[in-house]
TrEMBL record:
Membrane topology: Multi-pass membrane protein
One GO term describing the cellular component: membrane
Record bears the keyword Lipid metabolism: yes
The protein, known as: Fatty acid desaturase
Cofactor: Fe(2+)
GO MF entries: oxidoreductase activity, acting on paired donors, with oxidation of a pair of donors resulting in the reduction of molecular oxygen to two molecules of water
Similarity comment text for this entry: Belongs to the fatty acid desaturase type 2 family.
Length: 271
């Protein structure tokens, strides 16, 4: 396996896009772009894209298959995750499966032993040495037309959402609903890779550096209970103690009560 020390090549399109997003997010400090309705739109979209999309759809459903839902609902969740603009869904799922296979070792796309900056954001800015292996770990979704569409057109879908928000609320909706919301969502997810492999507490003595962090969980609707997740990666439930609030697990339970989620795997089945 190629080591990170081999100085992987920079991915300039990703670097420029990320830099542009961070600069655009600074527009929130201009009073002319502030409105409470724009903030509300950003919060709603954060819940839809990070909570339902990334955590429920990309992570617990697509990456780990911890439960099953009807295809219409699965595709709806994948569309929500795609609108988080964190890359194509097949890449997201493949890199996450590689992360679990090689956690905190050479082969982990965001190996935390390479430093906080690397596992938080820098790994995305460079060619991942084992990216050629992604196809091996995404065979279950490789031929799905909806996954392929979302994977290929995630930027175009974001542009479509931006046009819609601008039409509905002008620049305030665009600044808060796109730039600010993507900035917060991006770093919220990245904190799971960085903070939750460096700081926090450990409930399980996993053979890796994973930790639990309450404020990352708050930002990501339960993803911050990351040490629990690495102990039981096949569980849709991440929070194990009564005060480890896991919003996405509550959603899974609701879907199960409504008959929409089946074959749900929980901590009770693992402990």
């Amino acid at each position: 396996m190629t080591s990170h020390s081999a100085s992987p090549l920079p991915r300039w399109p990703v670097i420029l896009f990320t830099l542009g997003l961070h600069l655009a997010a600074l527009l929130v400090f201009l009073p002319i772009y502030f409105s409470w309705s724009a903030v509300a739109v950003a919060l709603l979209l954060h819940c839809l894209t990070i909570g339902l999309g990334v955590s429920l759809g990309f992570h617990r459903l697509a990456a780990h298959r911890t439960f099953k839902v009807p295809k219409w609902l699965e595709y709806s969740l994948i569309v929500c995750g795609t609108l988080a603009c964190q890359g194509g869904v097949k890449g997201w799922v493949g890199y996450h499966r590689l992360h679990h296979l090689h956690t905190d070792q050479s082969g982990d796309p965001h190996d935390s032993t390479q430093g906080f900056w690397w596992c938080h954001i820098s790994w995305l800015m460079h060619e991942v040495p084992n990216s050629a292996e992604l196809g091996r770990y995404t065979k279950d979704i490789a031929s799905d037309p909806v996954y392929n569409f979302c994977h290929r057109y995630y930027l175009e879908m974001q542009i479509g959402l931006a046009i819609l928000l601008y039409a509905l609320g002008g620049m305030p909706f665009l600044v808060w609903g796109i730039f600010a919301r993507l900035f917060v969502g991006f770093h919220s997810t990245c904190f799971v890779n960085s903070v939750c492999h460096n700081f926090g507490y450990r409930s399980h003595n996993n053979p890796n550096r994973s930790t639990n962090c309450w404020w990352v969980s708050l930002l990501t609707f339960g993803e911050g209970w990351h040490n629990n997740h690495h102990a039981f990666p096949n569980s849709a439930q991440f929070g194990s103690r009564w005060w480890e609030i896991d919003g996405v697990w509550l959603m899974v339970r609701l879907l199960r009560a409504l008959g929409l989620a089946t074959q749900v795997k929980s901590l009770n089945q693992n402990l």
